[in-house]
Structures are given as structure tokens and as C-alpha cells.
Amino acid sequence: MTRVWPLPELQYRPLTDIDEPRDVALVYSRAAWDAVASQLTSLRVAWSAEPGAAIETEWRRLADECEGEVVVSVGGGLATDAAKYIASTRGLPLVCIPTALSVDAFFTWASGVRRDGCVHYIPTKPPDRVVVDFEVIRGAPPSVRAAGIGDVLSIATGSWDWRYAHERGLNPEDAPYDSSADRIAATLLAAALECADAAGAGDEEGLRRLIDCLALEVQLCNLLGHSRPEEGSEHYFAYSAESILGHGLPHGDLVGPGILIMAGVQGQDTRPLRDALVACHTPLDTIPPDVLERTLRGLPEYCRRHELPHGIAHDVTHEMGRRGLDCL
Q1: pLDDT per residue over 207-266, tens digit each?
Q2: C-alpha 111 chain-centroid distance
Q3: In CATH, what number does 9-138 get?
Q4: How do the domains of the chain map onto residue ranges?
Q5: Cα 259 from Cα 277, distance rounded (Å)
Q6: Which residues touch 55 (CB under 8 Å, ≥6 apart)?
């Protein structure tokens, strides 16, 4: 049986207009909740939790403790992924309230957990509804407001890896290369590059276009049954760097540099990607230089140890790594 996961219902509305009559199990990040709590006073919160890490044992404990008729998440990737796990485990509906467009997790059916120094995606569920208040998104810190653009710009390196592995007969059997899907992904990449300036500035039309790109990127992967068009060496770099640094840096701070470095390794023109990341205020300098170099040195072994689908990261040499760092 092939299952194609749906996208959630998407509502554009002020948070003050939310009318939720059910008892709420609230999953949140502190900064996000502090930013919008005054606009969500109508919620009947029966239970609440702030996940500390993307660790399945912690989420299982929270699911056991959870009380309420509907799970509501407020925040970014960690809160969203934990809420998807809790809602799936308890068989509850899920409403997500992003306070920034920081990731594509608001649309996906899986949750990323950290295990043995790598990110593993476990099936949970897509949100039933995502509520976006553009005034809230516009007021988010610039470094996270539109940082989710990295999950679309990663098409540049992910699709390159997909073709690279195809040419060598190294794609997994369940992720064969599809030239039509590759062309669709390229169109989404172009749309993200086009909307970066407006989204980064908090312009509503730009933010809407970025949401379109994120949702369409996720749905393309849903239809394919894998994420090869948008997840490759740039994410492997981010996972490896995080395993060295420990948890704490936002997703965009890891993936943004990973895109530029690995696109440079691949020999791509990185200027349009850099311009888009800078326009969206994605930090490119939060990974210390020694960690960048250590990550690149160990990347081939890291990819093989964690059995990641083949990409340029598996074959990167010292010279290629220096070329990539020069693009950062």
C-alpha cells in the first residue's frame, strides 16, 4: 500500500479570532508563547509542556502525561515536532500556531528526533490545522522570521545530490531519480529565490509566497514518498555540525551555512543562494570555524556510519572542503 500524506488545513487569521472550545494540551517554546500569550487568552489550557530536546523518550513521557481534547503547538520546529508526536500517540487532533516561518515542520507528517548523533525522522502525523497571523510572523526576530527558506533553498544541493547518486547508481531503491519531480523542485527553488527579499522584510505577500513554497516542497516529497529533492549533503552537514556543537542552534543557523558550503563543494554558483539567505537574515557565522573544518573532515565517515542516502558529502575531499568554506 502506498500512502500519500496530506497537507494541513491552512488558515490566515488573527490569533485573537481563534475560537477553540475544547480543552487544550499546549506544547510550546517559551519565547514564542511569551510573544503571543496575550492574544490566546481564550484557550482553555488543561495541560502544558515545554519540550527540552528532540528526544523520543522525553516526548513519550509528555504523551503519557498529556491531558486535553486537542493538542495546540506554539513555536518552531522543536515544539511542532513534539506536538505531532504527542498528538499521534494520543490520537488527538493537532493545531499548530507558528510564530515565525522558521522550518517546514508545520506541514510535514514526521518528527525529527536526535539519536546517536544524527537526526532520524519518525512517522507521526501532519497537523490538522495551521493558523498563521501575519502580524505575529512580521514581529518575529528577523533571524527566524523567514529562516524556513533554507528548507526550500536546500533543493539546490539536495536535487544535485539526487542526480549525482543517480549517475552512479547509488540512489536507494525507494528513492529513484525522477526527472519530472526534479524540474518541479527547480521551479520551487526559483520561486523561493524570487520571494526572499520580501519575505525577509516581513512583507505579507512575500511571507505568503514563502508559505506556498514550503507547502509545495513538502507535498512534492509526500507524493514521491521521500525527501531526496530537498534533503541532501547540506542537511548531513547540519546534522554532523550539531552533533559536535550539541543542541541549541536554530535549524536555519545550521542548514544555511550547510547549503552554501556544500553548493560550493558541488561547484555551483552560490551567489543567488547567499543573497536569499542574507535577505532572510539567516545567520551564517554562528558555527565556529574550527567546527566547520572538523565537520567537513569527518563528513564522509559520518554519512556512511549513519547510512545516509548518497551525496557529495560522502565523497568530499580536503580540497573540495576548502572550496566550500570559501563560499561561506
Answers
A1: 999 999 999 999 999 999 999 999 999 999 999 999 999 877 999 999 999 999 999 999
A2: 10
A3: 3.40.50.1970
A4: 9-138, 148-326
A5: 10
A6: 113, 114
Query: Which three cell numbers mark 16?
Result: 485573537
pLDDT band at 1 (very low <50, low <70, confident <90, very high): confident
Report whether 63 contacts 85 (CB < 8 A).
yes
9-138 shares its CATH topology with 148-326:
no
301: β partners? none
Query: Can you identify the CATH homologous superfamily of domain 148-326?
Result: Dehydroquinate synthase-like - alpha domain (1.20.1090.10)
Residue labelled with grid coordinates 569527518? 298
Q: Is the pLDDT of residue 169 over 80?
A: yes
* Total Cβ atoms within 10 A of residue 179: 9
Q: How confident is the model at residue 2 (pLDDT cuts 50, 70, 90)?
A: confident
Three-class secondary structure assignment of the chain: CCCCCCCCEEEECCHHHCCCCCEEEEEECHHHHHHHHHHCCCCEEEEEECCCCCCHHHHHHHHHHCCCCEEEEECCHHHHHHHHHHHHHHCCCEEEECCCCCCCCCCCCEEEEEECCEEEEEECCCCCEEEECHHHHHCCCHHHHCHHHHHHHCHHHHHHHHHHHHHCCCCCCCCCCCHHHHHHHHHHHHHHHHHHHHHHCCCHHHHHHHHHHHHHHHHHHHHHCCCCCCCCHHHHHHHHHHHHHCECECHHHHHHHHHHHHHHHCCCCCHHHHHHHHHCCCCCCCCCHHHHHHHHHHHHHHHHHCCCCCCHHHCCCHHHHHHHHHCC
Contacts of 187 (CB under 8 A, 6+ apart): none
Amino acid present at 113: V
The alpha-carbon radius of gyration of the chain (Å, integer) is 19
Position 265: which residue type? V
105-132 per-position pLDDT tens digit: 999 999 999 999 999 999 999 999 999 9
